[in-house]
Amino acid sequence: MKRYVLSHEEYSISPLTISPNHNAWPSNLLMKLLDGRKVGERTFCEHEKQKLLFYVDYVAWDKGSDFLIGKIQENPGFVERVRKESEDIAKVLLKSIRDVENDDPEQWANHQLANYLQKTYKLANDLCIWGYVPVFSDHYFQKYSHLLKKIVKRAVEKNKKSVSIPETVNTLSSPVRPIPSKTARIELMQMIVNTAGRNVEERKVGNYYKKWNWVSFGQLGPRMAFEEVELSIKELVKNKKKAKKELNDLLTYATVLRKKQLATFEKLGLNDQEKYLFNVAQTFTYLKGLRMEILFGVYSQWEKILSVASRRFKVPKKLLYYCSKSELVNWLKARKAVPLEVLQERSKYCVWIALSEDRQIIFTGKKARDYVRQNVKREKQKIQQVFVIHGTVASAGYAKGKVKIVNEASKMAKVKNGDILVSVATTPSLLPAMKRAAAFVTDVGGLTSHAAIVAREMKKPCIIGAKIATKVLKDGDLVELDTRKGDIKIIN
Question: Can you name the residues that pair with 201 across neighbouring β-strands?
């Protein structure tokens, strides 16, 4: 019997929106990329109240991750192919996202809605398949991160250099290529700096909003409001000196970071193979951010499709997120409705088992709970008194503040300026709280996790993969983040 383990936990999510990700794991293409290894056979997701628990075959993932890292080390052409395929698919999806912004799905016939859903699902699924090469190299076991740490540790000991290993790994694995949210910020700053006076043309604001309103949508939204963009622009125009500095920092970021990376390579005396492995880490981190944000755009347009379908079907939109892609397509094209009581049951609790790129088994109620109980061996974690929690540095810096544990958007209000946001794993729905927080700590995730990406963009300290942070810490605890060691120290 296979041993399934909890690999990932996430909030503000739905079965439909996670399905291009989830159903990528058992795909034939991913198996081919792993030379026949079936790492994603019957992976399954447990859904309850917009919370996801994702389970995988422990042995298959362990062996598959080792194989993949070996393939990456031996075959630079493989990594280049992953990059090119990912970027090509992302480019097509970006066009499809913007095409909807210039159209009105309300005017589409049902078959047009279905066709758009089918087309973008297939592309999103393909993007996830190629994107799982970066994820699989470091997810759950964090083997790629450990490999990079060993390289730096050996170099430090050999050359007797005094550097922080966690911070050095973070610097050398940070991407120089911009993901969509950074490109959007650059365009916003350019619009501000190039505006004469204090009034940006309404047409320019409208065009910017139409182009980028989806970039922080997450899986369930909401998209940024037009009024939010207007207010942000008004505030920025008041201080153009600050805007010019931010624009300059954004435009020179890649050059400055690359110089620092090259100087660090030289300082540590890394050989060509070791440099290559860090360059791969940079590429993988960039691809994860690109994939994540392009999918946000896809989900933002699916929300429009579901809004139209909801009115035509006379079914609450929130329940349609518990349909599979195939069920929605059949409903739109052939009027094969999913019974309302079935969707209501799924919305309470359900388990989805991935069989292929777009096929799954769905259980609800007792059958779903029995399936989890029979296939997952839960290990009780005994936690003694803890004063220091260790994790992986995702963004360097120092922070000291009060802990606020937040996993759901409904809890964000308790995060005040200067607090330390602690979460199982952050999602785009937590961005307002992340902007106020001084630093982030997560239980799970690698260098390509959402928290890691956002922390680097916001230049805030972040420690990921802390495993027990949400179990040990509680609201109000005073903690100190030391990214030189990757430690979260409880100081009261």
Answer: none
